[in-house]
UniProtKB/TrEMBL annotation:
Keyword tags: Hydrolase, Signal
Predominant location: secreted
Name by which UniProt lists this protein: Polysaccharide deacetylase family protein
NodB homology domain span: 63-270
Enzyme superclass (EC): hydrolase
CDD domains: CE4_NodB_like_5s_6s
Keyword presence, Signal: yes
């Protein structure tokens, strides 16, 4: 299977809030990483090209990569979008719907700590630039620890809200923290999402599960050597990756802590 690096970014900023700083890269580093991708001979393709291949459609071009961004920080509008437009690069932005807000108002509908997030007018502008807008739930809940109507609202409700705002169908979804389960993935498919990204810190491929696409999380402390290896498709396994016993055990533990009212968050250790 040919490895496809699907890079996962969050914030691109010189001055992020403390809570997201470990998952933030500076604009300078972001530009340097885009240069590394190009120098490695990788062409950046839209996520939908990868998803189409995973669904049995046209094959991917050789030596390609995908850019994705989670949550919907305001720096995407002010920093990332201009850089992508300048270079003619496609990307997918997954927004936490409850963290978006009308211009001049404050968002009150997400579990994310305070940060400067996109407003709905900016989301619409980004959409018109050709950057794919995807869903990242309503509140950024851990989907494998919520049930019933709450899970439906997070998955299907966020899709309906995005489509109402943008005026067209949206099909790309991302699991908060990368967490899912067979039941969650079934609900995602039933809601009409045709792809969903996880984390895994593995390479994706045309054979990867389109409802559990592997991504490589770029952090503030990601060594340059590691990023270089990723651009050369070295240093990790290639999806699809079966769920490990550790992942199942970690899910059970988080469900238990959620039941007793002390939920834990963050990605599991690989």
């Amino acid at each position: 299977m040919k490895a496809v690096p699907v890079f996962l970014y969050h914030s691109v900023s010189d001055d992020p809030p403390d809570w997201i700083a470990p998952y933030t890269v500076s604009p300078k580093v972001f530009r340097e990483q885009l240069d590394r991708i190009a120098d490695a001979g990788l062409s950046i393709v839209p996520l939908r090209r990868l998803v189409a291949a995973q669904h049995g459609g046209p094959p991917l071009p050789p030596d390609c990569a995908v850019l994705t961004f989670d949550d919907g920080f305001a720096d995407f509008y002010w920093t990332v979008a201009p850089i992508l437009s300048e270079r003619g690069l496609p990307a997918t932005l997954y927004v936490t719907v409850g963290a978006m807000h009308p211009p001049g108002a404050e968002a009150t509908g997400s579990l994310l700590p305070p940060a400067s997030m996109l407003n709905w007018r900016q989301v619409g502008t980004i959409d018109t630039l050709g950057i794919e807008i995807g869903g990242h739930t309503q509140t950024h809940a851990q989907l494998d620890t919520v049930y019933g109507q709450r899970r439906a609202d997070e998955i299907a409700g966020s899709k309906h809200r995005l489509e109402d705002v943008l005026g067209h169908e949206v099909t790309a979804f991302a699991y908060p923290h990368g967490y899912s389960s067979p039941a969650v993935r079934r609900r995602v498919r039933e809601a009409g999402w045709t792809s969903a990204t996880a984390v895994e810190n593995k390479f994706s491929s045309a054979a990867d599960d389109p409802l559990r696409i592997c991504r490589l999380m770029v952090r503030n402390d990601t060594p340059g050597e590691t990023f270089q290896a990723w651009t050369e498709c070295r240093g990790s396994r290639v999806g699809p990756i079966p769920e490990s016993l550790y992942t199942r055990g970690w899910r059970a533990y988080r469900r238990m802590t959620a039941i007793v009212g002390s939920p834990v968050g963050g990605p599991p250790k690989d």
